[in-house]
Write a structure and sequence with these properties.
Blueprint (H helix, E strand, L loop, with lengths): L2 E5 L3 H9 L5 E4 L5 E4 L1 H5 L8 H7 L4 E4 L2 H18 L4 E2 L5 E5 L2 H11 L3 E4 L2 H9 L6 E3 L3 H9 L13 H9 L5 H5 L3 H8 L1 H12 L14 E12 L2 H19 L6 E8 L2 E8 L6 H15 L6 E9 L19 H8 L5 E5 L11 E5 L21 H20 L1
Parallel strand pairs: 2-4, 7-8
Antiparallel strand pairs: 1-6, 1-7, 2-3, 5-6, 9-12, 10-11, 10-12, 13-14
Length: 412
């Protein structure tokens, strides 16, 4: 599965823009100087390094705010938990603003649209980050194929070479020599790169050009975990015995879950030879019986029962609040929305009139009626009758037409 890089840097500016959509924003440092500014604010005259008073004098509608490091880190950790819960169990986000995860191409497009962020897709983390830098917000740049990767790397500009280990001073020195990108740097020999950039940086660039790149994402360690553990007097060897233990543990974690949803269920089995574990992806919101079945499958994946299980631990991770749409308008009696809609569009709303919810025929179960008058109204959602009774004349005519059609076909 390809590796994806989500580029949300600079994170303080992205966080501030999401908190105040549609507003010109600038992130300030502790000294009240502008660290980052949105492109619209920079077009209005705001530049990094100026004080907030100078920025407001140039752009009065600017929203300038200090984003503290703890709040930015807390928001970044929450985003990583969301990526872990909804997309992949392999997520890395050591630097706020850059998230790496293992995800398919359709899921990457969904992620880019959901976050409105540039996403790069490749076979290595470094190339995925380079692709994310050259993608537009909400777009996925896929360079998974080997031929496409070679062409893509040859077009990498010098400003993006920080991804592969160059510092800003290195890039400035290369620009002085006329190096416009990675294609010009490829023309140098390995010894020339090490002599000009330094041994450490030069070796890193040489290894990257030879294909030695990071091609795996570490498993994410969730911060919010609900678990229950039970030690056993005698080792377990039978699935039926483990089912009894799970029946005791799962109600405990379900109570602690308190209506929230979990993305993964992990079973830890302590044996004489050590601890074995297995993780299963949860789909939807399974009940106690469904969790019991999934826990049993996870325990079978560990292969711990033949060794004898001395303790069992059940963990739920990827905790999040599920989104539910309970209705079009939550409190219809208190709102005047219905009256306003009917005043402007009298035929916009219909209501269902239940005839027999247990009827076999669809048209006998319910009908759509006008919201105000209660008269049956035909809409695209109105069930059609499955059978229409025929009169005697129609039945006779159909009986005559069938043999005539048969003989006409035979004569042809």
């Amino acid at each position: 599965m390809p590796l994806a890089c989500v580029n949300l840097s600079p994170w303080p500016l992205i966080l501030l823009a999401r908190q105040h959509p549609g507003v010109l924003v600038a992130a300030l440092g502790e000294s009240r100087k502008v660290l980052y500014a949105s492109p619209e604010a920079m077009a209005a005259g705001v530049q990094p390094g100026m004080r907030d008073t100078a920025a407001l004098s140039r752009c009065p509608e600017l929203h300038a705010e200090v984003i503290s490091a703890p709040s930015a880190l807390a928001a970044w950790a929450e985003l990583l938990e969301t990526l872990y819960a909804q997309y992949s169990d392999r997520v890395e986000g050591r630097t706020p603003g850059l998230a790496f995860l293992t995800v398919s191409a359709p899921a990457a497009r969904e992620l880019a649209a959901a976050l409105h962020a540039p996403v790069g897709l490749a076979d290595s983390l470094e190339v995925a980050q380079l692709a994310a830098l050259r993608a537009r917000p909400g777009e996925v740049r896929d360079v998974g194929r080997e031929t496409a990767e070679k062409v893509f790397l040859s077009l990498t500009p010098a400003a993006h070479l920080e991804v592969i280990g160059l510092s800003q001073s290195h890039i400035e020195r290369l620009a002085f020599l006329g190096v416009r990108g990675l294609a010009d740097l490829m023309k140098w020999s390995a010894a020339q790169r090490e002599a000009f950039l330094g041994v450490d940086v030069g070796k890193r660039i040489n290894r990257f050009l030879k294909g030695e790149r990071t091609k795996a994402v570490q498993k994410y360690v969730p911060g919010r975990v609900i678990e229950a553990r039970m030690g056993l007097d005698t080792p377990l060897h039978e699935p039926s015995e483990a089912e009894v233990v799970f029946s005791e543990l799962l109600p405990l974690v379900l109570v602690e879950l308190r209506g929230r949803a979990a993305a993964y269920l992990t079973v830890h089995a302590d044996t004489l030879g050590g601890q074995l574990q297995a993780t299963r992806k949860l789909k939807g919101a399974p009940d106690a019986a469904g969790l019991l079945r999934i826990a049993g499958l996870a325990l079978n994946n560990t292969g711990a029962l033949p060794l004898g299980v001395e303790a069992l631990t059940v963990q739920l991770s990827g905790i999040q609040q599920p989104g539910r749409m309970v209705g079009l308008w939550a409190s219809l009696a208190e709102l005047e929305v219905t009256k306003d809609v009917l005043d402007r569009f009298p035929e916009a709303l219909v209501r269902v009139n239940w005839l027999d919810p247990f009827a076999y025929a669809v048209d006998a179960r319910y009908e759509w009626v006008d919201w105000l008058t209660g008269v049956v109204r035909a809409t695209p959602m109105t069930p059609r009758q499955a059978w229409t009774p025929q009169t005697r004349t129609q039945a006779h005519q159909k009986a005559v037409e069938q043999p005539l059609a048969f003989f006409e076909e035979v004569s042809l």
